[in-house]
């Protein structure tokens, strides 16, 4: 089975894929989150793996936007939570005060903000498309004084050295990754049972959102049926200030009677409501 992931080789997403993939997976590195979600939508790959949320930095907006706005047929079929520890990486051994430029994925730069501020105060911090792309670029341009933030796998793959380990702001840093599939791929759906807890992700927007209490009315549909909310995030609808999409994760399966009723009730208040997946909760 071909599984696309946010690449190039050596991302934290690749590590999450390898830690959670069934045997016989053909892992295909793709250049962006958008490309990964689209490859699932188009059927170029059967599954995709992307990051969705980090414990220090919050949502990965590119993933939320790609799922809610750019595609209609892609759903979350599983989730994986992985510890994330960052390394400072360069082509050669370097003193910290020799580093002029440090690059990484913005999520990684943000997770290491204190280290960058306190230990590399003179370095220019640049954004790269992913952590491993930053490491690959440091190796490719070969100039002294350049470093990247990434993992040990990327340092090894691109022939670089690890200068410092564990540079994230807080111990216990974790990222939640999701496995994606097309909604019509029945083999991807995990059936109820087996003693596993499930979660359901939805996105909703519009309707009475300009009226007092609209969001409370929406969420009351869940609360009144005892459906627990584990996360809520908003993203702009890109139609001016004051208009948002709300991403909500719930405990339970979309076909549990209480959840199904709650979602039907929620839908009566909204212009749009989409279920983004029902999947086993990470252990
Ligand atoms: O760029 C990567 O390696 C990713 O997989 C995204 C990411 C970045 C920082 C922490 C976790 C995931």
UniProtKB/TrEMBL annotation:
Any one GO biological process: L-phenylalanine biosynthetic process
PANTHER family referenced in this protein's UniProt entry, alphabetically: PREPHENATE DEHYDRATASE P PROTEIN, PREPHENATE DEHYDRATASE-RELATED
Reactions performed catalytically: prephenate + H(+) = 3-phenylpyruvate + CO2 + H2O
Gene coding for it: pheA
Signal sequence segment: none
Highest taxon of the lineage: Bacteria
Record keywords: Amino-acid biosynthesis, Aromatic amino acid biosynthesis, Lyase, Phenylalanine biosynthesis
Gene3D superfamilies the UniProt entry points to: 3.30.70.260, Periplasmic binding protein-like II
InterPro entries associated with the record: ACT-like_dom_sf (IPR045865), ACT_dom (IPR002912), Chor_mutase/pphenate_deHydtase (IPR008242), Preph_deHydtase (IPR001086), Preph_deHydtase_CS (IPR018528)
Protein's pathway: Amino-acid biosynthesis; L-phenylalanine biosynthesis; phenylpyruvate from prephenate: step 1/1
Site (Essential for prephenate dehydratase activity): 175
GO molecular function: prephenate dehydratase activity
Ranges annotated as spanning the membrane: none
Domain ACT stretches: 203-280
Prephenate dehydratase domain boundaries: 2-182
Matches recorded under CDD domains: ACT_CM-PDT, PBP2_PDT_like
Family matches, as SUPFAM superfamilies: ACT-like, Periplasmic binding protein-like II
Protein name (Swiss-Prot/TrEMBL): Prephenate dehydratase
EC number(s) from the headed UniProt entry: 4.2.1.51
Example of a GO cellular component annotation carried by this entry: cytoplasm
The keyword Amino-acid biosynthesis is annotated on this UniProt entry: yes
């Amino acid at each position: 089975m071909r599984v696309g992931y946010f690449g190039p080789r050596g991302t934290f997403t690749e590590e999450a894929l390898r830690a959670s993939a069934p045997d016989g997976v053909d892992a295909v590195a793709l250049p962006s989150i958008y490309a990964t979600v689209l490859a699932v939508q188009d059927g170029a790959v059967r599954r995709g793996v992307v990051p969705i949320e980090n414990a220090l930095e919050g949502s990965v907006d590119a993933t939320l936007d790609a799922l809610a706005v750019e595609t209609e047929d892609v759903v979350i079929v599983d989730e994986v939570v992985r510890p994330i520890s960052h390394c400072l990486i360069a082509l050669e051994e370097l003193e910290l005060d020799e580093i002029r430029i440090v690059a990484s994925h913005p999520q990684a730069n943000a997770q290491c903000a204190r280290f960058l501020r306190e230990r590399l105060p003179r370095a220019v911090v640049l954004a790269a498309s992913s952590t491993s792309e930053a490491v690959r670029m440091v190796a490719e341009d070969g100039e002294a004084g350049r470093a990247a933030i990434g993992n040990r796998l990327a340092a090894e793959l691109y022939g670089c050295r690890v200068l410092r380990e564990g540079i994230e702001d807080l111990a216990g840093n974790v990222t939640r990754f999701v496995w994606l599939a097309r909604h019509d791929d029945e083999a991807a759906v995990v059936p109820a049972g087996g003693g596993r807890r499930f979660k359901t992700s939805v996105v909703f927007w519009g309707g009475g959102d300009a009226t007092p209490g609209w969001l409370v009315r929406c969420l009351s549909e869940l609360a009144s049926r005892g459906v627990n909310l584990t996360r809520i995030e908003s993203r702009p609808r890109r139609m001016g200030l004051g208009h948002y999409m709300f991403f909500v994760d719930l405990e339970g399966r979309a076909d549990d009677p209480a959840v199904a009723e709650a979602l039907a009730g929620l839908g009566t208040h909204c212009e749009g409501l989409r279920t983004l997946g029902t999947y086993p909760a990470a252990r």
